[in-house]
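Chapter summary example: a protein plus adenosine-5'-triphosphate.
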Amino acid sequence: MSDNRRRRGAASLSDMKGSMGSLKRSMKEYYKCFPKLMPFVYVIIVLAALPNDLSPLIMQKIYKLIDVWFKTGDWESAKVDIVPLVIILIVIYAIGIVLSTVQAQLMAFMTQKFLDHMRCDMFGKMQKLPIRYFDSNKHGFIMSHYTNDIDTLRQLVSQAIPSLLQAGLAVAIVFVEMLYFSVWMTIVIILGIIVMGFVTSKVGAGSAKYFVRQQNSVAATEGYVQEMMNGQKVVKVFNHEKETIESFEKLNDELYSDSSKANSYANILGPIINNIGNIMYVLIAVVGGVLVYYNVPNLSISGLVFEVSIVATFLNMSKKFMANLNQVTMQMNAIVMAAAGAERIFTLMDSEPEKDDGYVTLVDAEIKEDGTITEADHHTGKWAWKHPHQADGTITYQELKGDVVLDMVDFSYVPGKQVLTDVCVYAKPGQKVAFVGATGAGKTTITNLINRFYDIEDGKIRYDGINVNKIRKDDLRRSLGLVLQETNLFTGTVMDNIRYGKLDASDEECINAARLAGADGFIERLPEGYNTMLENNGANLSQGQRQLISIARAAVADPPVMILDEATSSIDTRTEAIVARGMDKLMEGRTVFVIAHRLSTVRNSDVIMVLDHGKIIERGSHDQLIAEKGTYYRLYTGAFELE
Ligand SMILES: Nc1ncnc2c1ncn2[C@@H]1O[C@H](COP(=O)(O)OP(=O)(O)OP(=O)(O)O)[C@@H](O)[C@H]1O
Ligand SMILES: [Mg+2]
C-alpha cells in the first residue's frame, strides 16, 4: 500500500478484514501474557457487573412493597419486608464496589504489562530488520508505532474490551429480566433498539473511518516534527522557517479535519442515542400506564399481573439498557482504532527479518606452535572460524587472518539500477587497501557488502577463503571494525561510547584505544574527561571529535579487519597523522580498508583502487598509479594544485 494511501487510510473491505485479524492476534498476544490470570480477571469483570444487572429483581419487589405501604399506610408491617431487602441491596452493591476496585487494579497492572511486552517485542523485532527496512520506511512512522499505535492497544485492553463485556452481559441480563416482567413492554424497547441500531450504523461507520485516518494523520505529523527537528540548522540556514510552518500547518490541518470529523461523529452519536432513550422512556411510561389502567392481561415469564411496580422497574431497566447499548457503540471506535493500530504494529513485526543462513562461527582460539587450533573458553586474543561440516559431522578450525576477496561482484540497491559492476578486490592480511573515487562512485557500497548490510547479486565475497554467506552475520560483523561515514554517538558518557565497541572492555582498554585514535588529548580537556555526558549524537562535540570517538570505539574491539569510511574527513591533517600512526600500530598484521577523498590519507596504502561509476578503473600503489598518469594521477595532482 502506498504511503500516501495508507496515510489517508482509505478503509476498504480487505483492509478492515486485515485489521480485524490483527485485533484477534493482539488479543491472543494479550492472553499469552497472562494465561492464568486472564480467565480469573474476566470472571471478576463479569461478577463486578452483576450487582448492577440483577438489582432490578429486588428493586421491583421494593417498589411493590412501597406501593402496598402507600395504599395501606401501615409502615410497621411494611418495614418488616422492606428493610431486609434494602440491606441485601446495599450488601450486593458493596460487593460490587470491592470487585470493581480489584478489577481496576488488575486491569491497570495487566494493561501496562501487556504494553511493556508489546513494546519489547516490537523493539526486539526492529533490531532484527535489515538495513533496507529503514531505507524504505519513514522514521517518524516507525516511531509512531511506539506511541500512537501502542496507545490504541491500551484503550482496547483497558477500556473497550472490559466495557464491551460488561455492557454485553448487562444487555443480555436486562433483556431476560424484561421478558421476565412483561413481553409487551419488551417489544416497545426492541422497537426503540431497531431505530437506534439504524442510526448507529449510519453514523458509526463514518466515525470509524475517520478515527483510522486520525491515527494516520497523527503519525504523519509526528514524523514531520521529528524530521524538522533533526534538520533545524538547515531550515534556519535557508530561511525556510516560513515554508516549514506552512507544511506543518497543512499536515496539522489534515489532522484537525480528520480528528474533528471523527470526534464530531462520535460526539453526535451519544446525544442521539440518549434522546432516543428519552423518547422511549416516555413511551414506556405511557404504554405501561395504559396497560395498567385498562388491566390488559400480561404476558411474562414470571406470570406477574400488570401493576405500577412493573412499569417503574421497566423505566429503570430501559435507562440501564440504553446506557449499556450506548457504551457498546462508544467502544466501537476504540476497537476500530485499535484494529488499525494493531495492524500497523504487526506489519512491523511481520516484516521479513534479516536472513542469516550462516553456520560458520567465530570462536576464541588457542593456536599451538605446530599450527593446530583448539577452541578456548576464554579470551586468548586469537580467533578462529569454526566450520562444522554437515557431510561427515566433523568440525574444522581455521585461523582468522583477515583475508578478504571480492570476486566479480555485482550489486544494485534498486533492481535494474546497477551500482557496482564486476568489482574485484584482493586484500591480504596486513594490507591497507584504499578506495578512492568520485562521490556516488560506490565506495561505501563496497563496505556495506563486506559486512552484509546488503547481499550481492552476483559474484562472491570470501573472508579467509570462506564465502561470507556461510558466516553467521553476528560473527562476521564482530570480526570487522567499522567506522561509518556518518558518525553516530549514543546518549551516555564518552567512556560508554568508546566501550560500545567491546562491552567488557576495561577503562584502561578504552583509554588505550582513545590514545591510538588520537582522541585522548581532547577528551582529557573536556570538563569531565571520559565521564563527560554526550547527548543528541554528541552535539556538544566538534565533528572531528565525534569521528575520533568513533575510531576509538572501533579500535577498542581490536578487530582483525577494519573499515574506515571517511573516518578522518573532518579531522585536521596534524591530528590525522596522529590517528594514522596509532592505527598503523593497531593494524599491524591486520587488514584495513580506507576510503578517503583526501588523497594524502591513502598515499601509504599497499593498494589503491580507483572507482568510477561502480567499476574499478585503476589499481596499484601510489607510485604505480602516479606513474600511470591516469585518473588517480589527475585527481592527485589536481588536489595538489588546489592545495
Ligand atoms: N540505500 C540506498 N538505496 C538506493 N541507492 C543507494 C543507497 N545508498 C547509495 N545508493 C546509490 O549508490 C551509489 C553509490 O553510493 P555510495 O554511497 O557507495 O557512494 P560513495 O562512493 O560512498 O560516495 P561518497 O564519496 O559520497 O560517500 C550512489 O549512486 C547512490 O545514489
Ligand atoms: Mg560514501
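Key point: The pocket of magnesium ion (ligand 2) is lined by residues 443-444, 485, 565 (CB under 6 Å).
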